[in-house]
Amino acid sequence: MCCCCGWRMLQLQVQSHNKYKLYHNCSALSALMLPQSLSPFRPLSSSSSFSQPVVPEQQQQQQKPQLRSSQLVSLEYADLNLSYDLNLGHGRIRQHVNPFSPSFSTPAQVPDWNQVFADPALPLMVDIGCGSGRFLMWLAKRTPKVRNYLGLEIRQKMVKRAEVWLKDLALDNIHFLFANAPISFKQLVESYPGPLQLVSILCPDPHFKKKHHKRRVLQKPLVGAIVDNLSPGGQVFIQSDVLEVALDMKNQLDEVDALSHIDALNPDILCDSEGWLLSNPMGIRTEREIHAEFEGAKIYRRLYEKKQM
Q: Which pTM was predicted?
């Protein structure tokens, strides 16, 4: 072998030895700088200390996305299996209306009760300001031959949607009317063949401004019409998430001698120190009730019963 070839082989051996030293030194440095589980000399295992940290259960629950109140409403009424893809025409549904507007001054037409209900002799519940109507539908579905239900709502689009839902549910003990209750309630219930057993006014429009308090649905003429037509033993259920509105309704009904609050008749019904019911006696929450409780608001409830004559 010539001297040139010998020199070249010696160079290659030196380079190879230097590469090995470089790799060995870098590997040793890495083993010192990185966690042992990531060292090039140890394989990464599922049980290594670098695996995903264990998150406490409470923290996991906090990390879960919270349901919106609208989703909670849908869950509450899920067994109705209603369709929400409805075409109600253009324009949004107003949340607040002026009941003194000329468009609401005409009394609702009294329906043919024999056409509306399968048995118009059954006791009647009237929900004043029934909104979407899901609260009444839920009740009607559970008591098909026990009670009839009438929902009065001042927003016509809400009534139209409720009527579409009723066709899907095929219930024959519930009906909805586009009506301004203070104007239409008296003639409607006086024409009904059966007894008026229950009237509910649940989370009505608060009309916060003092000049608009006269727009609130429960005024003395409506109180009189309710009490006069309510059968002995019949009940009035009110609730609101606005204390001022709840007190306004409470004060008006407390003044009626013919009514007694339920805790005076049944000590098993629990109330707080101020006389508000501790729980909802209806078995289902209204939509507004769900939204309010979701936001942390308190619901103020009262249940009155007409004295036996």
A: 0.76
Query: What's residue 26's pLDDT?
Result: 39
Handedness of CA 230, 235, 237, 238 (dihedral sign): positive
Residue scoring higher pLDDT (45 or 151)? 151
Name every residue whose Cβ is closer than 8 Å to that of residue 305 and which is 6 or more positions away in sequence: 233, 234, 235, 236, 259, 260, 261, 262, 265
Cα distances (Å, whole numbers) of residue 305 to 164, 191, 217, 265: 34, 22, 20, 9
Active site residue 127: no
What is the per-residue pLDDT across 67-108, written as a single tens digit (0 to 9) for each? Answer: 888 899 989 999 999 987 655 544 455 567 888 788 888 999
φ, ψ (nearest 5 deg) of residue 212: -105, 5
| Cα atoms in the 13 Å half-sphere on the side-chain side of 201 | 23
How many Å apart are CA 33 and CA 36, to the nearest integer? 9
Average pLDDT of the residues of the chain: 82
Say how many Å lie between the first and final Cα of the chain, rounded.
132
The single residue of 79, 127, 168, 205 carrying the catalytic annotation is 205
Q: How much of the chain exceeds pLDDT 70, in percent?
A: 75
Annotate 256-278 with b (16+ C-beta within 10 A) or e (fewer): beebebbeeeeeeeebeeeebbe
Query: Based on the number of CB atoms within 10 Å of its own CB, is 123 exposed (0-12), middle (13-18) or buried (19 or more)?
Result: middle
Tokens of 272: 């707080």
